[in-house]
Every structure is written in C-alpha cells, then in structure tokens.
Amino acid sequence: MGLLSDPNRRRALISLLTRLNAPICVVCYMAGVAWFMGLAFEPFTLRTYMSENAMGSTMVEERFPAGERALATGREFSAHKKKVGGMPVDWLVKTMQARGLEVFTQRFSRTLPFPDENKERYLVKGTNVYGILRAPRAPRTEALVLSAPCTPGDNNNQAVGLLLGLAQYFRNQVYWAKDIIFLVNEHDLIGMQAWLEGYHHTNTTGMDWSPLQGRGGSIQAALSLELSSDVITSLDLVLEGLNGQLPNLDLANLFYAFCQKIGVLCTIQGKLQRNDWDSVSGYSHSVQTMMLMVMKQASGRPWGDHGLFLRYHIEAATIKGINSFRQYKSDTTTIGRLLEGMYRKLNNLLERLHQSYFFYLMPSLSHFVSIGYYMPAFGLLAVILLTLIKSAPSQMSSPGVLSVLTPLVISHLTGVEVAVEHFPVSETEAVVLTAIAIYTAGLALPHNTHRLLSGEGTEQGWKVLKLVAVLYLAVLLGCTALINFSLGFILALTLVPVAAFVTPHVPKILSAFILVILSPACTLLFSVFFFQELQEMPVSFIDGWMLFLSVISQGILDHSLYGSLVYPLIALLVYPCWLLFWNILFWK
Amino acid sequence: MAITMPLSSIIHKQPQKQRDKWPSNDFQEELVIRPLHSGDIYASFQFRTLWETDFMRGNKVSHYRLFPKSLGQVISKFSVRELHISFTQGYWRTMQWGQPFLPSPPGAELWVWFQDSVTDVDGTWKELTNVLSGIFCASLNFIDSTNTVQPSASFKPLGIGNVTDHSFLRYATLPREIVCTENLTPWKKLLPCGSKAGLAVLLKSEKLFHSSFHSQAVHIRPVCQDWQCKTTSWELRQTLNVVFDLHTPGQGKREWSLFKMFSRTLTEACPLASSSKIYIDITDNPQGEQFEVSPATPLLSQAMVLGDRRTFSVYDLTQQITFGTVRSLNLLIRWKSSEDMLRPLLHGERYVAGYGLQTGEIHTLMYNNHPYRSFPVLLLDSVPWYLRLYIHTLTVASKGKDNKPSYIHYQPSKDRVRPHLLEMLVQLPPNSVTEVTVQFERALLKWTEYTPDPNHGFYVGSSVISSLVPSIVAMDTNSTREQPLFSSFFPCKEESSYFVRVYTEPLLVNLPTPDFSMPYNVICLTCTVVAVGYGSLYNLLTRSFQIDEPSPGLAKRIANIIRKMRGVPPL
C-alpha cells in the first residue's frame, strides 16, 4: 500500500508496467492456456463423490424384472406410431390408464420463424401425453419426471416401451413418497418446452399450448430417456442444458454410482473412462472429453430434452443408450433396474439437490473440475485486460464525446441488424446469408464512421476509444464467464489478443487479416471444425462450411424457440465490441 | 348448514327406537364402506358420543362415563363452543374418488369457536393449541399468530347457536404435519371401548397406514337434545377415513374383504354402544351385475348423501344373527371398476406458476361441472407472510371473461406476525373453470428463520372452497325411477342443494435460500476480504497525489504580510 500511496514510486510502478506490458501479457496468456490444459490432467482434478446424504447412505434393491415385456410394448408402440403416422395419442392414453396412472394430454402448436432444415419442420403441431403415478399418502407437493421423446421414424420406441414398463412396475410399489410423472413428448424439444411452460404457466417464447389438467407439485428432478435398440453397449450421460446451465453434480454422481453397481458401461460425451492417465494418449483422451464438454456448454443450446428443465431449477439429465460394436451388451431389464435404482434414490430426497456443485467441468465421469479450479484460467486472461487498462495514460485530454460515441453507436446498430429476427425472408439459407452479409458489411464501418465525423481522428481519440473498448470487453467477458464459463473462456482466448495488440500504427493488411481470423464468426467456424475433430468425425471444408451455416441458423432458432441467449449475446454485444477494435485499426 | 351424513339423515325402514328420548349418555358406532369408481375402496368410521351436560355452568363436571375426560376438561377450561380438528396424510383425489363424507386438508387442521364469554381469545387459543398438542401427540404447538386466521364467512358453526361474530373463531392449518401411529393411539384412547371391542378392533395401524389416504378427525359441537331444542347436549364425533389401494393391473375384477383390508374380522359390537352398524354402498349395483356382497343381508337403507340418493346394505352388529355360525363377520365384495375419471360437480386445483426465486404466481382453479346451473362458492386463502401477495394483481376469470367477486375480505399480512387472509364469494358459471391468480414476491428470511431443511421449500396451506352445490337428484329431470308425479315437479328444499367443502393441494414454494454450507462461509469471508482490499486499492489508484507544502505558521504569515507591504519578496 505504501508503494502506491507514494507518488514517485507509483509513477515508477506504472512506467514499469507500461514497459513490461507486452511480456506480462504474453506470460499471462500462456499461463492461462496452460492452466486450462492442466485441468484435464487427472492428478489435478477431484474424484466425484456423493454429497447428498439422503441419496448416499441409503440402500436400495433393484428388482425390475420386465425388460422383455417393455420391449414388446415398445414394438406395439412403434406399430401404432406407424399406423397413425405420428404420436399414437389414443393408444398411449389407454395404455397408461391400464397401468393405473392418471393420464392427461396437452396440445401445442408453434410456427417457426423460418423452416428448420435439420429437422424438416416449419409448422409444428403436436400432443404431449403424460401419466401421473400418485404416491400414496403424499399431498401432491413434490414430483419426479421420467420422459421419453416420441421421435419420427424407428427411433426411441424402446425408450417409450421401457417408460411404460417402468410405470407398470412402479405402480405396484408402496414406497413412493413423490408423485412420478411419465411423459411422452412429441417433437422433442418443442414439445418439452410446451409441456414445461404449461406446467409452470409461463410463456417466454410465444408458443400456443393448451393448459395442463393435472399436476404433481414442484418437480424435484427429471430424467429424459433415449433408447433406440433392444440391447445396448453403453449408456451416455448428457448434462449440458440451455445457456450452458448444468444440473447438480450429484445427479451425475448418482448415475455413475448405479452404473458401477449394476455393471453397465457408462460414458460422458461418448467417451469411456480410461485408467492410463499418466500416458500421453490417456491425457489427450481426457482433454478431448473435457474440450467436448466445453464446446457443448459454450454453444448454449440444450443437448437433450433435459436441457429445458434447468431454467425451472429442476435438476435434469438425459440418458442415451448407445449400441456400438463392443462385445459387452446390456439388456433392457438392466437399464430398467438402473432407472429404478435412480428413481428410488431420488424418491428418498428430503430437499432439492443442492449439496454438490452446479459449476463444473468433467474430464471423465469419475473426475470433475470445480469452479474454483477452472476460474483462474480465465482470470489469467482477464489480467491482461486489466494491465491494458492500467497502463493507459492517466492524464488524457477529453477528445470530445462525439468521436468515441459515434463508433460505439454505429457498431451496436450493426449488431442490432444482425440480431433482429424478423428477417424479410423465410428461407433458412437466406436468413443465414443475410446475417453473414450484414456481419461482413459491418467491416466497412470505419469509413462510414469517418464520413460522419467532422474532422480527422486524433491520437488521443483512438486511445480513449481503445480504453472504452477494453473496459467493455473486460466487463462483457467477466459476466459471460460467470454464467457460462466455456463461452467466456473461448471468447477470451480469441478477443484478448485482439485487444492487446490493436493500434492504428501496426501494419494494416496483416493486422486486418489477424483481426478477421480472430473475429467471432471465424471463431465459430473454427469451433465447428474443432468439434468435428473431437468427435472423431472430421469434415471437408465444404461440409464444414455447410455445418457452419446450419449452426448459425440453429443458433437463431434456439433463441426464438427456447430463449437461448448465445446468439443475441454475440450479435448485440460481442460483435460490436470486436467492431470497436476494427475501428481502432483503421483510425485515421 | 350441516354436512349431510348417513348417520344423521338416514331414513331407516325399521322404526327408530326411542328417537325422541335419548339417554343422557349415548354412544353409536358405524362403518361405511364404498367401492370407489377408480377401483379403490373407501372405509369411513364414525363414532358418536352424546352427553347431556353443561360444561359452562359453575358446577364442575367430574363424573365422566362415555365422554373422554381429557376433552371434557378442555371444553370447560377453555370455554370452547365448537372444536374441529383433523389429521390427514395424503390428498383426497376428487377426480377419482368423488366427494368424501368429511373433507379435510393434508396435514393438520384446527378450527375452534369460543364462547362469547372468553375475553382473551388469542391467549386462550394459544393455550388450547398447546394442550391439544399434548393430547394428540401432534405438533399443534407450532400454531401461532403467523398461521392463524379469523375467516369471516367460510367456517360457520355446525352446532346449535347462531353466532356470527367471527372474532371468536380461530382457524389454522399445518400442511407439513405428518400423521402416523403416534397420533392414532391417543385418538383411539378417546373411544369408550378403546380398540378392544366393536368396530375399533379393525383400527390396526399397520394396515391403516398402508393405504392411499388416511384422515382422522375429532369434532365437538353442541346439538339439540329433542326436536324442540329445550335442552342441549354435547356431541363428540370421532371419524376416521381411509382409502385402500387395490390396484392390480390388467384386471377389471376386484376382490375385497374385511380381513384383507384390516387383517381382522368382527366378532362383536362395542357393549357400550347403543347402535353399531356397517353400511355398504350398493347404489351402483341395482341388478347385482357390478358386484356381489357376501354374506348377503336383507336390511337395506336409503339415504341422501352429498346430493345423491344412495342405497346401502346394513349389517347390525348388535344382532347376534349377523355373525352367523362362525361367530365372526368377514364381509366380502367383488366388483368391476373403470379407469375413467369422474367429473365431480365442484373441484379445485392450485399450483405455483413462474420460475426463478424472486416472484411467482398462485393459480387457483375452480371447476363447475354442472351442465346448466351456476352456483356461488366461498374461497378462503391463507398465505404465509413470506410470500408477499401483490393484491392489485388479483384476477378472477371464468371462460376468458372477468368474473367480479361479489364479496372480498382481505387482511394484509404483517411480517413475522400474521398471514394474508383472502376470502371471496365467486359465482361459478355452469360448465366452466374459474381461475383466480395473484402474484407474489418471495421474501428473504432472516438466517435464523429458515427451517433445518431450507431447500425443501416452504408450505402454503390448502385453500378452502365451500359451497352449496345443486344436487344430482335435482339434475335428474328425465326421471328414470318410479315416483309419483305430484312429488317430482318442484325440487324438494333439502334435496335441491347440499354443502360441500373442497380443499386444494398445499403448495411447496422455494424461497431464496443462502447456501448454508462451508463453501458459503468461505465465500462470505473471501468477499469481505476482497471488498476491504479492493476498497483501499481502488482508493489508492484513483486518488491523485500532489506534494503539498505544509501551511506556514502564524509568525511566518505575519512576517510575510509585513514583507509584502514593504515590497520585499516573501520568505
């Protein structure tokens, strides 16, 4: 403190910082990246453990016997689905009633802003069917949800079959303390969104749905089941939800514990766990697993039907059955027993799941990195921005509000253009290309700005603009990383170097090239290729470009259908911020 | 308006013995069994003790025969006019089971009318709840001013006496109360025969609590002794309602017997009882194709129950012949069931809407399923203070249109002192859903006010919907049954409508909860340190330091003035 209150020493310190600015920035950047890569190294991570006492110490015995019958029900369901050509509502209602549930239906309809080409839908109309198993002597205050999406084609019939099988088995048990809701939702996420909005009587996305007739109180936890074959080799756990929200880690622990107990192979991000953490391949395996989680979380989209529950503070996960060419197979009875065990433990919960972490990354299913461990990686990158701010000259004459405000306003207007969803066109490609066109047009901005400005930009002018831009970026990235670490970190990785080196005095052509490479759109493009690489499904450049276009359209759709915030964040805040740096580069 | 019950309104085919000359002490017991629409079975026990005495006069009552002394003392000490207490585990499923004989909300409910001689009603109420807490082994001592209300219209006295001053009424619910054996045992001890003889033999806790619904209640009220009401006597009614779940998938046929349900059979009536009967509702079975009862009984009885004309088979336990040759009675029923839902004429639902921990909305839905008649209902809502109701957002809508309540009584809450009370008289249009919504804000409690399990959520008691519902008999216009024409034009008064009280589900609401764990403390501590450190650092960074000469002393300043006058440069 004494160091700072002495004006002479203070000046010396600041000059030292200014002089060593470049090396400090480089060291911090390197350290940040190294720290992040170190997170996947097993000795640096923590083993997962069950924090919730109500689920940890109690024993449950799984006795679900009727896997074969569940598969038969699934085949029956598939036959009826084919006959009706969609969701066999009447059959489902009758079947659930025969199993002793209180059955209700909900109709919904939604017109997408433009056709979704991935799923080939535009005008969506559907019906959700759900049955409530009332717990004896319970006052309808708490509920658990088990859902299975009814997808077109031959997919997921086994999941519906198993759901009905479990409903029948659960109905005859006496130990339930919470109502259990068995939900078959049509049109996957759209149906789920309609059901959740109906259940909580909110309307965030302008969807039409009929009100729900039966409820079970506040939902404590939910699992979504996806199963498309009679036998499976492994079960995959999907955690990433809307806007990068994650369920409580105890839910993942519960799944892992039961997989261990029953002897089912379990994966996360489709990657099995390996024991050779000390070898290079073992390490790269866990880096891949963690990077996949980071990429998925950063995308901000729900990666399964569970993703929409998280907004309502309901812990939820999706369990996917995977049938690959491994020798070791598990049948439906085993999966049924696994789910039975999980539900019995969730039924024992006295409070909502809250004991364990909500912010974490998982390099494998048995290890996790908590927020305290991964935040320093981001912190080191943020330090660069702070040194940049600090080393800004402290006595600056005010260069006139106008010269700073104008580029700021214009960049944001461009951002608003990109973000506005009411495109005059209704074709997916047209929408995406319009977005890209506006985005590219924004690059011509410096010239427009200068035409608007009266005189030449001054030396002071760009310095103030840069100070504003760096402050802006620091606040933006800080807030983003708190909510969605992965997104914040990826953006910091690309935008912090931009903020560090841009001045009007660097070589124009080269810097412009680097700036474009590090712009949000190119980051997205690289992420697409990187994601495909991580999934061991590399794509050619043309396919990658097509994927890139579809990712943008999905981003816009996610925003308008489910309220995902990533697209507006990029368009309204990140891109204008980047434009400010672009502006500085072309400052005259 | 009394709740219509088989016991009080049954028109027996046999002449009632000594109806106008009851003894001063009288005990009756009965069990009604009704196979429910959903395939479950509903058993309702009622035990009634009548005693012609006056607790309120100066002379102390000391000789008790059938009436339990513990309750008698409570009545006289606290000047109770009426007392209704119920303990319920589970929620009555109106859509599957229809209306119960005696409705009750999940958890514990207590409402008491005091005599108008009581001066300090709140103090007496507080003492009374503590005493009852001891008598019934329940947490009734948690009833305090924060969950007690004085309803202005919904709870009228059920006994004689025409009191309208609701300052002598107290009403409280404990939706979290869990009911178990420890509450059943003291309840059984109030019976004259205990659980030694009579119908109470069937009350075995291991079976009673292996059910879908369990509710036990005690009602005390003054009733008329004769039709002229010259003298009054005290009535103690102990009721126990239980619904057994007989679900077996894929089978339409159900089978049930006394032994299967209670793991006991009956061998005798309670020797102290003047009447001991079992009624079996066989209304849905006119030709015997739906179910069969064995052993068969020649005794039949008709009664108006909840606006519907029901037929019962009657088994009189005081007659030896009922027990047959094996000297034990084990009733057996076989019947078919259907899975469809019922459409009860009046039905209520409630839920919390919205997400996030700041605000929310309580929705109360009231269904009127009557095809052409509208009727008024009284809605009572008592909401704890920590949900701060925004009463200006209160809306009542049916069929998409605003439905203005004709009477609203609202008492705002006071933090940590009293709950919100909202009472409304709403007209429900025929065949409609009326939705009452009100927004609320979730309060942040002080850290000692959280329960030990704060993440479980906080309970809001059931709302109470009371109404006079047009009866099903009055609806029956195509008159399929044989009856004289002169009797069927105007609906008979007592049959045209009946009183129903419907309780909605309690709500479980999450409040913003701090993380009561070690990391929470660490975060608090770190934040404090960071705040202190940041403050001083920020102060240092933004303050501009300048080297300032210390101000010269007085002598120097005077010297300078002199030098200035002389025109010499200052020191």
TrEMBL record, chain A:
<keyword id="KW-0472">Membrane</keyword>
<feature type="transmembrane region" description="Helical">
    <location>
        <begin position="470"/>
        <end position="503"/>
    </location>
</feature>
<feature type="transmembrane region" description="Helical">
    <location>
        <begin position="569"/>
        <end position="587"/>
    </location>
</feature>
<feature type="transmembrane region" description="Helical">
    <location>
        <begin position="509"/>
        <end position="531"/>
    </location>
</feature>
<keyword id="KW-1133">Transmembrane helix</keyword>
<dbReference type="Pfam" id="PF04114">
    <property type="entry name" value="Gaa1"/>
</dbReference>
<feature type="transmembrane region" description="Helical">
    <location>
        <begin position="538"/>
        <end position="557"/>
    </location>
</feature>
<dbReference type="GO" id="GO:0042765">
    <property type="term" value="C:GPI-anchor transamidase complex"/>
</dbReference>
<comment type="subunit">
    <text>Heteropentamer. Part of the GPI-anchor transamidase complex, consisting of PIGK, PIGT, PIGS, PIGU and GAA1. Interacts with PIGK.</text>
</comment>
<keyword id="KW-1015">Disulfide bond</keyword>
<protein>
    <recommendedName>
        <fullName>GPI-anchor transamidase component GPAA1</fullName>
    </recommendedName>
</protein>
<keyword id="KW-0256">Endoplasmic reticulum</keyword>
<keyword id="KW-0812">Transmembrane</keyword>
<keyword id="KW-0325">Glycoprotein</keyword>
<dbReference type="GO" id="GO:0006506">
    <property type="term" value="P:GPI anchor biosynthetic process"/>
</dbReference>
<feature type="transmembrane region" description="Helical">
    <location>
        <begin position="20"/>
        <end position="41"/>
    </location>
</feature>
<dbReference type="GO" id="GO:0016255">
    <property type="term" value="P:attachment of GPI anchor to protein"/>
</dbReference>
<comment type="function">
    <text>Component of the glycosylphosphatidylinositol-anchor (GPI-anchor) transamidase (GPI-T) complex that catalyzes the formation of the linkage between a proprotein and a GPI-anchor and participates in GPI anchored protein biosynthesis. Binds GPI-anchor.</text>
</comment>
<keyword id="KW-0337">GPI-anchor biosynthesis</keyword>
<dbReference type="InterPro" id="IPR007246">
    <property type="entry name" value="Gaa1"/>
</dbReference>
<comment type="pathway">
    <text>Glycolipid biosynthesis; glycosylphosphatidylinositol-anchor biosynthesis.</text>
</comment>
<feature type="transmembrane region" description="Helical">
    <location>
        <begin position="371"/>
        <end position="389"/>
    </location>
</feature>
TrEMBL record, chain B:
<dbReference type="GO" id="GO:0016255">
    <property type="term" value="P:attachment of GPI anchor to protein"/>
</dbReference>
<dbReference type="GO" id="GO:0042765">
    <property type="term" value="C:GPI-anchor transamidase complex"/>
</dbReference>
<dbReference type="InterPro" id="IPR007245">
    <property type="entry name" value="PIG-T"/>
</dbReference>
<dbReference type="Pfam" id="PF04113">
    <property type="entry name" value="Gpi16"/>
</dbReference>
<protein>
    <submittedName>
        <fullName>Phosphatidylinositol glycan anchor biosynthesis class T</fullName>
    </submittedName>
</protein>
